[in-house]
Amino acid sequence: MSRVREYAPAALVLVAGVLAWEAVVYLFAIQFYLLPAPHVIVQSLRETYPLLVEAGVYTFTEAVVGWVLGCGGGILAAMAASRSPELARLVLPYAVASASVPIIALAPLAIVWFGVEQGSKIAIVVLMTFFPTFVSTLRGLLSVAPQSLELMESYAASDQQVFWKLRLPHSLPMVFTSLRACATLAMIGAVVSEFFGGPVKSLGVYIKSTASLFQTRQAWSAILVACALGLLFYFAVALVERWVMPWHFERRER
Amino acid sequence: MGPPIIELADVAKIFESRAGATEALRAVSLTVQAGEFVSVIGPSGCGKSSLLRIVGDLVEPTSGIVRVKGKSARQARLDRDYGIVFQTPVLYEWRTVLDNVRLPLELAGRARAERDERPRALLRLVGLEEFAGHHPWQLSGGMQQRVSIARALALNPSILLMDEPFGALDEMTRERLNQELLQVCAETAATVVFVTHSIAEAVFLSTRIVVMSPRPGCIDRIVTVDLPRPRAEKTRALPRFFELVTEVRQSLREDPGLGGEPARGRGAR
Fold it and tell me: What is the predicted ipTM?
């Protein structure tokens, strides 16, 4: 009941937004190819949905596979780097700097290297998700309070024990923050990479080709699917987060 | 008297930093017998925490000798002879209260049965049995510190090192925990080295009080506390209790540039 009350205002905003959109299109008699009304988009969604499902699965697969490889690699690399603070100091500045590099700019080159199919898109998603996860995980593993370490030291804990019983659980909140952000990044990376070329039955290519033919309603329905998949991805990760570290959320909700 | 359990001979500690060298301890010599409760008292910056950490092998002395149970401090730490209680409880938030107390048993690789039973018995000892499944943040500061005492006792250490464990607590909670601590110590027969800011606390708990002066930290005086044991609330009302408090206060005051009893709670953290 409290949940309903909590989210009701936000849901109302959504409904109001859609209604306002309908009203604006109707009142100002906006041409359908400039901005189709929501009900037109929904209609188009209904007509083209088998194709959209196929394209959605294709693109979503790229995002998820790239995310798993990129984030997984980032976590493993951070675990390795945390063993040697000297090494960590050496690579961390570059990993941080990579956040401001527009990795998506490599997408055309990725097609040259990995082909026009899913491989090139996965490669871009891997690059986009690897560095943020590496940085967050490494910071999490290294930001343990000195007293927590002293406690371990006073019990003559081995490096292994310090890692598994202190550093890793301590880093989890930061790791998951990055995993969630990367779920969003992965979907963006996959769709935008497809703009540079790919099979027709992929969201990016479909959006680009329909838009260039002024088939705006089809483009919008594909954008809607991309949005839904992005949200699905994000909330799936958030759900796993709650399941892995319930203590973190119990605390916040108090 | 048997051989001392802790022996410090001419211990000095100099911290090197970019700002220069700071002499934290100079020529500290002290012996502690098994079963003693020794408090170390002094103003902020007198090196009392450093002294405790040197005994526990968390900090290495610059010079001098530290022997614990006839071994080096390092060997004593590796043998897990210490239980340490810090200023803050240092509980791991992802662990329940019970699992926090269990941590030392896991680290020492103790048998399953002991890992299951010992933490419960310890929580019973500190009166927190019904909070076993709680997480640390659900407990008050005093309760958290009791959990950390239970954890320090997990491996039945022969030496308990306590670094201002009750410094952050209010006066009433502190007095109650003082009483509890004495009961716990009586049951475990551990030797205690206890760093504190509070004169009353030191007098109430200790067999001896080491009074330190700052910059560089060195032992000013050692006050033997001849109050009857076991100590209870009524101990605090004895004339001798007040005499000893006054004695310790005066020793602290004799220090130039020091305004008697330091402010309650902690100064610079």
Answer: 0.84
